[in-house]
Amino acid sequence: MEAKLIETIIRGSLWVTYFLSLYFAVFWFLVYYAKLNHQERKKELKIFGKVTIAIPAYNEEDSIEITAKSACSLDYPNLEVIVVDDGSKDNTAKIVKKLMKKYSNLSLIQQSNRGKGAALNNALDNATGEYFVVFDADSEIKKDALRKMLPYFSNKNVAVVLPVLKVRRPKNYLQKMQWFEYLINMFFKELMSKLNCVHVAPGPFSVYRTSILRKVGKFDEDNLTEDLEMAFRLQKHDYRLIQLLDVDVTTIAPENVKQLYKQRNRWYKGAILNAWNYKSMFFNKKYGDFSFIQMPTVILSGIIALVMIFSIIYFAFKPYIIFFHNMYFVDFDFITVIKNLTFNIHILDYNFAVLAIGVAMFVVSLFIIKKSHVYTREKVFRHGFWSIFVYMNFYFLLLGTMWIGIAVDLVRRKKQKW
Amino acid sequence: MVRQISKEIYVVASILTGVIFLLGFFLGMVIEGKRIQYVETESKKQQLDLNSVQLQYSYIDQLSQQNNCEAVSKTFEKNIENLESTRIRLENFNQNAILGKSDFETLMREYSLAQIRYWLLAEKTKQLCNRDIVTVLYFFAEDKNCSDCNEEAFILTHMKKQFKDKLLIFSFRPELKHEPMIDLLANAHNVEKYPSIVIDDVTFSGFTEKDALLKHICSKYNSTPEPCKT
User: Fold this and answer.
1) Fewer CB within 10 Å, N side or C side of chain A?
2) What backbone torsions phi and psi does residue A206 show, to the nearest 5 degrees?
């Protein structure tokens, strides 16, 4: 009876999940084809307002040179670059000091290790630019980025403009899977941008209007994901966040599962905790579409991932568990079973509802993959057929499994708290 | 500043999602209709097979054509196999049924009756063709009402694989409403709980382990079949 109840719960949650996933897919399809009033407007740059690029760095001796050089070499006349060394134990500061001899607009601030948020606030305190760029030390940007991005600030309400984030030279399948994920995320973020629903301004080259940053307060130094929290705060203050698709920034993606888990644990946990902190924005007319589609999505994406992974585990393993349990009663006589193996499958045996959902999801996934590559100016087969195959079939399982760990952490934290 | 809520998109997305789900539901109904149709067709075919095999035995009986027994027995065995596989399929269809439960229940009634007919024929022809076979009646209930039925069915299926045409198993689900014949059969063999297994006139009530069944089944053969030798 208990097993029956569990199965009913799993089946019920799965149907709710199917419905919600389908709703979200249809919703974003409509946004894609909708002609909305607030399309991004840009004006040609006539005055080159000063730009401050802040590079927070902690033990980045391997990548700081590329990042700093890439920032200093931007094709923009009015630029200052500040590297904040967050108490690195390696040669980060030494490398920056050496570079300072070559680049006059480069400066270094050293602080004891207090985290990325504190490093950014330190840079913000010292920034003299009209625009403030957060530039993670493991990223690289194209020269014309600022010239392409700053024109979008013509609207006074625009607080931040974001470039396309791409994985830099993916080597193994894990990084190649992230390559697809990043491009798809960018495509979605552009759609979100259409509804002013962008909920995160990632570290690699987010361009802020400095005055707005100072007005809404500094970066939250204790936050797991200060970039996400800042985006939530800007949304709460009714500012616009714009995602572009014609400017690229590349970043290094985790190269093994352990690193990826560490990163996702921080990202997803940060997203849930921040959504909880900003719970007054859920289904609140005051915050428009952000409150009706984006806030629920932040929470539901985790729940959907968990339901999916539990259902897959349950339905995939259940027949085998039953089979081995039953084999006990026939003394594990595998020989008879193998000798009499027959395949009596009829087309009507298939569960067509699940099959139809599977086919629909596959077609939608292909559409999204194709569109996200077109809009980010990439070729779908750039990393070969197998990387797409692996991405489509296994990546969601990997992330779903990670959600289990994250859910456990969140529950534990709650227990400790209350 | 008043922020925009794209009401139209929410409404259209809800309608479209609802329509897609309804389409899915109708697809499910169409498939269910096809499943009922499939089982009905199979049922007709199997009825014809039964008539044919009955006629074949009558022919052997009346014209003393015992030399044809082996060939007819093979057809008989194949028919039972088909019947059983359709019955299992039917059980699965019934479990996933949305609205056609009553149609599937009626079909299952038909299948149970067919099983009884085959069982009676098997008993009758045992002597006629001097067949050294054992017949087993298996009474079971749905999983929720019978925690051990799944295991018992697995044991019987496994034994069938071992004994092949030397063992004939007929499955009945007395829970099936409005079928007095199964009740009659169950009462005649004192079946009071599930699973129950009837071999000749002995009823094994409740879960019975493989060894106990094997011992009893083996004692019923004139010449010892292979699985009884170990």
Assistant:
1) C
2) -90, 125
